[in-house]
């Protein structure tokens, strides 16, 4: 589902997330492994504050494994726990509750010492639209339970989902807005399908994508479209013209651009990652 973000909506979203944060012990910040930074909410650190956090790099099946490894190291170096998953295939998902228990060991032991028999952890997923929050949530859950609130702020209809005996998740994820103010971020989010097709120009996103694959994954691009050395030596704009002709679109270059976007999302150029931690050097957080 796509959400139109206006200042009022952003304030409301932020308030909703902050209310829910009071109910949980830790946060699962879900991002798209192809664009770990571009798919983060710009105010995430402020909003989440000191609450323990696991960075969940989702859609790892679509991302470049080597770059995913770099991002995991990057987040761990910042003091977060971090894990890469493919939420569509639940295999490694149980590592999330394990990781959470490991991270919250001190708290759990304190609770045990106080005589609480089955100390549990409560968590929530937060992220921008389309990163896979609902998929992660649904795959983690084994059964639905209604927990009556003995904590401040727990409303009667607050539902918790049970992942296992000691790990519970808030039933709805926290949804925050992406970084729209940056054109490069916009291109990345559009190319990966995180923002609606109606809100960007296919020709510029397609051109961005083509230039990216030409530079970063030339073999994959060459193979996907049967390109030769001369084609590959062209500027992205000229290559788009060549492609458009090859695809039978003539001078309807926007159709070639749309095809490039479609093909990238479908994985025709293989797994890819649009940014690496080094790109952030010199950027302010
Ligand atoms: P959200 O709650 O954060 O908004 O995201 P949601 O779970 O709805 O997931 C957004 C899209 O991403 C869905 O596809 C979902 O199937 C897909 N997705 C989620 N996790 C993964 C993953 O690990 N790998 C891959 N490849 N895809 C993932 P959709 O196109 O909206 O729907 P559909 O194609 O599943 O019908």
UniProtKB/TrEMBL annotation:
InterPro entries: G_CP_dom, GTP-bd, GTP-bd_ortho_bundle_sf, GTP-bd_ribosome_bgen, GTPase_MTG1, P-loop_NTPase. It holds the Pfam family MMR_HSR1. Gene3D superfamilies: 1.10.1580.10, P-loop containing nucleotide triphosphate hydrolases (3.40.50.300). Keywords: Cytoplasm, GTP-binding, Nucleotide-binding. The keyword GTP-binding applies. The keyword Nucleotide-binding applies. CDD domains: YlqF. It comes from the Bacteria. Residues 14-178 form the CP-type G domain. It is found in: Cytoplasm. Its main location: cytoplasm. Required for a late step of 50S ribosomal subunit assembly. Has GTPase activity. Belongs to the TRAFAC class YlqF/YawG GTPase family. MTG1 subfamily. This is Ribosome biogenesis GTPase A. It comes from Lacticaseibacillus jixianensis. The gene is ylqF.
């Amino acid at each position: 589902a796509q959400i139109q973000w206006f200042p009022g909506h952003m304030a409301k979203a932020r308030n909703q997330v902050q209310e829910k944060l009071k109910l949980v012990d830790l946060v699962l910040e879900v991002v798209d492994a192809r664009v770990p930074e571009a798919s983060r909410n710009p105010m995430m650190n402020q909003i989440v504050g000191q609450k323990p956090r696991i960075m969940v790099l989702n859609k790892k099946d679509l991302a470049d494994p080597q770059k995913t490894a770099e991002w995991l190291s990057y987040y761990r170096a910042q003091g977060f726990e971090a894990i890469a998953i493919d939420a569509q295939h639940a295999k490694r998902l149980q590592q999330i509750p394990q990781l959470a228990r490991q991270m919250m060991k001190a708290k759990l032991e304190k609770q045990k010492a106080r005589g609480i028999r089955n100390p549990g952890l409560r968590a929530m997923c937060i992220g921008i639209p389309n990163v896979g929050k609902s998929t992660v949530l649904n795959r983690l859950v084994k059964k639905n339970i209604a927990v009556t609130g003995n904590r401040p702020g727990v409303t009667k209809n607050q539902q918790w989902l049970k992942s296992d005996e000691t790990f519970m998740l808030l039933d709805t994820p926290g949804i925050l807005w992406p970084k729209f103010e940056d054109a490069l971020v916009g291109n990345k989010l559009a190319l990966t399908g995180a923002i609606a097709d109606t809100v960007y120009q296919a020709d510029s996103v397609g051109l961005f994508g083509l230039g990216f694959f030409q530079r970063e994954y030339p073999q994959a691009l060459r193979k996907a479209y049967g390109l030769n050395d001369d084609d590959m030596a062209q500027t992205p704009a000229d290559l788009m013209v060549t492609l458009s002709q090859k695809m039978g679109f003539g001078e309807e270059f926007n159709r070639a651009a749309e095809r490039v976007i479609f093909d990238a999302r479908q994985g025709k150029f293989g797994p890819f990652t649009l940014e690496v931690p080094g790109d952030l050097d010199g950027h302010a957080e």
